[in-house]
Specification:
- This protein has 1 helix and 9 strands, in the order E-E-E-E-H-E-E-E-E-E.
- By secondary structure, the protein is mainly beta.
- The protein is globular, with a radius of gyration of 16 Å.
């Protein structure tokens, strides 16, 4: 939903947008320089409530949900910096969640 604009991020799309997005990249986000055989991907954005609701709907019991102000790849070049643990954080003090983890179990 965020897009770079100069030295800031702006809201570029609705958090609730359910349409497929097309991305073209010759390499993966992992830093691997090997070119991809198929550089076009399609991705769907899901809200946190959709994800948690799907887990609950599948009969799973949530054990935890954590949000983090960092990510594991340089998703906003020039606006993000690497910390001492190799994670990527937005510069400045206003950090929206960039990553989350969830643990669920099937009884």
């Amino acid at each position: 939903m965020f897009e770079p604009e100069g030295d800031r991020l702006r809201i570029g799309d609705s958090y609730f947008n359910a349409e497929a997005r097309q991305y073209v990249s010759e390499v993966t986000y992992t830093g691997d320089d090997d070119p991809l055989a198929h550089p076009v991907t399609y991705q769907w954005q899901h809200t946190l409530s959709e994800i948690v609701g799907a887990l609950i709907g599948a009969g799973l019991t949530l054990e935890f949900l954590h949000e983090f102000p960092f990510t594991v790849f340089n998703m906003y070049p020039g606006l993000i910096t690497r910390d001492e643990h190799g994670r990527w954080r937005l510069k400045g003090n206003h950090h929206p969640p960039l990553l989350f983890s969830v643990k669920a179990r099937k009884d």
